Every structure is written in C-alpha cells, then in structure tokens.
Amino acid sequence: MASSPFSLTQEREQKLTEILGHYPTKMAACIPMLHLCQDQNGWVSEEIIAFVAERLELPTAHVKGVVTFYTLFNQAPVGKHQVWVCRTLPCALRGSGDVLAQCEKKLGIHAGETTADGKVTLRTAECLASCGTAPMMQVDKEYHEDLTAEKVDQILTRLQA
Amino acid sequence: MIKYTNYLTTTYGQPEGWKLPAYEKLCHGYDTARKVLTTMTREAVVDEAKKANLRGRGGAGFPMGVKWSFMRPHPTKPAYLVVNADEGEPGTHKDRTIMEKNPHSVVEGCLIACYGIGAHVAYIYVRDELHLAKRRLEEAIAEARARGFVGKTPFGSSYPVEVYVHTGAGAYICGEETSMLNSLEGKRGEPRLKPPFPAQAGSFGCPTTVNNLETIAAVPTMFNLGCDAFSKMSALHDMKDGGVRLFGVNGHVKKPQIIELAVGVTIREMIYDIGGGVLGDKDVLAVIPGGSSTPILRPQETVHAPDEKNPMHPWHGKSVFDVPLGVDTMRGVGTMLGTCCVTVMAEGTDPVLAFQNLMQFYKHESCGQCTPCREGSGWLDRTLKKILAGKASMKELDDLSDIASNIMGNTICAFGEGTAMPAMGFLQKFRPELEAYVRGEKKGKDARLTVSFEASEQAAE
Ligand SMILES: Cc1cc2nc3c(=O)[nH]c(=O)nc-3n(C[C@H](O)[C@H](O)[C@H](O)COP(=O)(O)O)c2cc1C
Ligand code: FES
C-alpha cells in the first residue's frame, strides 16, 4: 500500500495514540481520527481517507463510506470560519428565518456557499440542542444563543475582519 | 402539580459548578458511588435501581432498572455501558445543560451503572457540535481519575471502571441506540435489526446497556436518597413513573428554560408557570409535548376515559393540558412524553409551515437504509412544499395520510414512527388549514412561524 502524503502534527499523533487506547478495535477510532485530521486540514481529502484507512487497517471504501454518512465531515474545502444557523422548528418559532436572512445579506451569499474571500461558509443546521435559547447559531466550535439582529451583526463583522 | 426540586441542577449557576470541588461541596461528591461500589453487591444494585421507577429519559420511557436486569454476565465477553448524549431530537435541550453544568453527576452515575450491569468501560457518546459539553465531561473524568475514583481501583475497590467520551459527526439517527453502536464501532450510523438487543450483542458484539445521559446523571441522586424515596417524589409514583427530572419549555413562551421538577407537572403549568405565559399573551395554538417525534396536542382536546378502571379516568373530561406529563399519561392522550421538553406555538403560527419545517428535518436526517422511510420522508416534505406553494391537489393532500401510514411499522428502527406519528397528528388536527392552501385561500408567502412579542401590536393586527 502506498503511503499517504498526509501526516498529523506531533500533538495530534499523541492524541491519536491515546484515542486508540480507548477501544477494543482500531476501527472504532475511525470517527475520532477523521475529526483530528479535519481539525488540522479543514476538510477530509482523498489523502486523509487513505491515511486513516492505512493507519486503522481498513479498506478505503469503509472510510469513504463513513465520511459521506456524517454531515460534519467536509468533503471539499470550506471557509476559514463556518457559520451554522439552526433552522429547525423551535428556533424558527423565535426568528431563525430572520437570522439566516440577515447572514445571507451581510455576507452576500446564500446558505451553502462560501464568501469569495474564503473567510466564511454559511450553512443551516438542524436542531443543535439550544432550543431554550433560540434563535441560535454555531460559529466554528462556539454557540451563540438568544440572538438579536445586533448580536448577529457584531459576530459577522468580527468574522469578516 | 409543580414541585420544585434541585438534585440534578444543584451545581447549575454556581461558580465553577462543573468542577470537582463544587460537586464535593454541594452534591456529596462521589460518596454515593463509594458506598455502592464498596458495600453493595451487583444484584442488590439492580434490585434497588428497579425501585426508582425511573423511566428512561431518552424518549421511549423504558424502566431503567428493568433494562439493567437484562444484563447477564458473559463467560468470555466484557460488558459495556453506552451513555446517549447525542441530543438531537428537535425541541430537546436538557442533556446539554447537565454536561456543561453538572458533568460529575454523569461520571459518578457511570461508576454506579457500570458496577450494576457488570461493565468496566463506559462510553459517553456526545454529538460533535457540543464542544463545551465534551470539554466539561473530559475535564470531569480527568479530575475523577486524578482522585482515583475512575480507573483501576475506584475507592480502593477491585472493580476497575474507565469512562471515555466518544464523539459523533452530525447525524440525528445516531441517537437511535443501535445506530449509535455502529457509529461507536467506527461505521456508518445505520440502525441494526433487533434482535439481537444490545443487552445480548451491543457494542463490539458484547452485552451493552444504552441509557440516556440524564438517566445516568440521576443515578447518584437515586442511590443517595434511596430509590423508593426517589420514586415517591413523583406524583405518578403509582403509575411507576418515578422521581424528578429535567423539564424544558421552548418556542412561544416568555421564559424558555430547563428546570428540574418532580414528575407530575402539567402542560398548562409548563406554559404559564414555568414558561411565564405565551409571548404577547396570545392563546396557545398547539404544543409538541416532548420533541418533534411526539404528536402535537391542542388545548381544546379533552380526555375521554369514562371507565373507572381506565388509568386515565382521574382526568376524564379535562383538557389534555391539565394531565400530568408522564410516560403513560401522554400515551393515554394519544401522544408521547418523549424527552419532556415542551414546544409551544402561539395562535397566529402557521401550522402548515410548522409541519413542513419538521418534515424537512426528517427528510434530511433519514439514514436512507429503509425505502419506506427514505422515500416517504422525502415525499411528505415535497408535497407539503407544494401545498404551501398553492400547487397541490386535494388528492395529494389525501395521499399524505397513506404515505405516513406506509412508513409506520415498515422500518428497521423507530425513526419511521418518529416521522409518521407527528405527520398523522398534524394531518388530523390541522386539516382545515391544509385545505385552505389547496383551495388557494391562503398563500405560503404569508405564512409565519414567529409571533410578535408586543401585546399592543397584536391588537393592531
Ligand atoms: C431516531 C431516534 C433518535 C433518538 N435520539 C436519541 C437521543 O438523541 N438521545 C437519547 O438519549 N435517546 C435517543 N433515542 C432513544 C434511544 O434509542 C434509546 O431508547 C435511549 O437512548 C435509551 O436510553 P433510556 O432508556 O435511558 O431513555 C432515539 C431514538 C430514535 C428512534
Ligand atoms: S431548534 Fe434550534 S437548537 Fe433546537
């Protein structure tokens, strides 16, 4: 098997070793390892799929099958920042439609697109377990809750800077 | 009846309430697990747990002690505990608060549960988006390990327990227990056929108990108070629906929140006492009692149980909003308790748009394994969009019921029922509103899900 040109940073390699110790099989590390790789690379490339398959002794098709099943694995490059606006009913009852419209207007893109400067990818999300503090959106690894037009504006301005 | 309690939420809002010193100061910090692991037998733990009448907090309401009793020691295979923190059911926002604000209750619960079911490893499966929750859990596990509570010899006992956090990658279906097991094993999160049940062959082919995160977080409280005393705090103790739990209220109320109460509160109390009333003081159009898969209820619905032997008889003739929220009581009014987080919709909300919003969710989240679910959820969503656009015929509207009933019972997992049951609820209870679109009396572009907060604006409308 040809070695993949992708490699993890030393810190992430250590984390991987620790993760492998949690499970009775190597396969079980598949999703956590894909997360480690995506954290480093921003998206899951063919090289990463080959890297994970080789390291966990899995067929490439298995890893690809996993990557395509889960919505959080990016199968193509995305913006530097990712914004997810929750669109599901409890958030929609409290104005997530307006939040999304505001994001689209300010960023000049539609949901599912990335700004031309590559800074922000805008997407909708399904319920993010924050219905009591709706409307809400996730920006990278952070939740922003009880959104108002003012808050949304501030958050986006920061991302665009 | 509202009975405020503060066991699961003791550390909420406290300075660094998620850390071990706060847990030790406020919650008997691990004394309960110490007592259980050093003085009780496994069998005694399970027998005691049964007395709590704790109905699983993940949505199906299965009695937790009974589930634990299904675990039989296997001659060669290890056993596992899998804690379900995938919290993805629309309208559900409770487990996240425990992970962020009281993570030690989960770790201590894992110790007791592992001991009871004969497992030495617990995996807490957290949906990936909950980054703060994962961090808090991991920090709590590290603190507990540093003190020797988690590890090779918890409290000096010879019963090793390890607790790990495992993350998903964005798939609602992974909340379904067998899908979760596949996901934990590093596979696509497609549900498995049952049997075998997880207690026979769960994670890695070994006996496994899957419990919701709140179920596990309640375990230290149960054993600290005594499981019978825990059960009796509930107004529905006689219906074997015991204890205290987290209740949520969201949507069109003034004070959406998560709060701990004894079982027994009604929907009306959730809206007006806990939720502070409806935005703009409007009337209630409908509520979804416990997550989007639980059929919708309207305030004008009443309980019909004239027979004295019917367990619902005490509420005969009353509004469904005055029935205590319980696993069997909600079944008794034709819906489900689900996750016990109530979504409130005010008068003025467009029910057809709400219906379509939810069907879009199910279409997006169907794993695609079973044809009736994959095709049916897409069909429901498409037809509803067509109805909203004023382009659907009466025949297409009539077909929706058939599509929904064709999903029921024809899928590997309960996602199918979770899609079809709420669909049937909307179809039965909002037929005139749906017909108004087909007849062209209403237009999709005017449909709204938000209502105005201002009571005065309401008058001007
Ligand atoms: C489609 C689907 C999604 C589910 N999502 C969750 C979930 O997010 N969290 C959860 O605890 N249970 C969820 N469940 C229920 C689980 O399958 C399982 O019954 C539960 O975790 C058992 O724990 P309990 O007995 O402690 O409630 C889901 C079920 C289905 C069918
Ligand atoms: S609906 Fe948006 S967080 Fe639940």
Structure description:
Chain A has helices at 10-20, 30-41, 46-56, 60-69, 89-93, 96-107, 149-160; strands at residues 81-86, 120-125, 137-139, 142-144. With 161 residues, chain A is an alpha+beta fold. Chain A has two domains: 10-69, Arc Repressor Mutant, subunit A, CATH 1.10.10; 81-160, Glutaredoxin. The longest helix of chain A has 12 residues, at 30-41. Chain B has 461 residues and is of the alpha/beta class. Chain B is 40% helix and 10% strand. Chain B has helices at residues 20-26, 31-39, 42-50, 64-69, 95-101, 103-117, 131-146, 177-184, 213-217, 219-225, 227-232, 267-274, 327-332, 351-365, 371-388, 394-407, 415-429, 431-438, 455-460, and strands at 80-85, 121-126, 162-167, 208-212, 244-251, 257-262, 284-288, 341-346. The longest helix of chain B has 18 residues, at 371-388. Chain B is globular and about 75 Å long. Mean pLDDT of chain B is 96; it is low at 455-461. Chains A and B meet through helix 2, helix 4 and helix 5 of A and strand 3, strand 5, strand 8 and helix 14 of B.
List the helices and strands and how they pair.
The complex is a heterodimer of chains A (161) and B (461).
Chain A: H1 10-20, H2 30-41, H3 46-56, H4 60-69, E1 81-86, H5 89-93, H6 96-107, E2 120-125, E3 137-139, E4 142-144, H7 149-160
Parallel strand pairs in A: 1-2
Antiparallel strand pairs in A: 1-3, 3-4
Helix pairs in contact in A: 1-2, 2-3, 3-4, 6-7
Chain B: H1 20-26, H2 31-39, H3 42-50, H4 64-69, E1 80-85, H5 95-101, H6 103-117, E2 121-126, H7 131-146, E3 162-167, H8 177-184, E4 208-212, H9 213-217, H10 219-225, H11 227-232, E5 244-251, E6 257-262, H12 267-274, E7 284-288, H13 327-332, E8 341-346, H14 351-365, H15 371-388, H16 394-407, H17 415-429, H18 431-438, H19 455-460
Parallel strand pairs in B: 1-2, 1-4, 2-3, 5-8
Antiparallel strand pairs in B: 5-6, 7-8
Residues 56-60, 62, 64, 67, 84, 86-89, 173, 175-177, 210-212, 215, 413-415, 418 of chain B line the site of flavin mononucleotide (FMN).
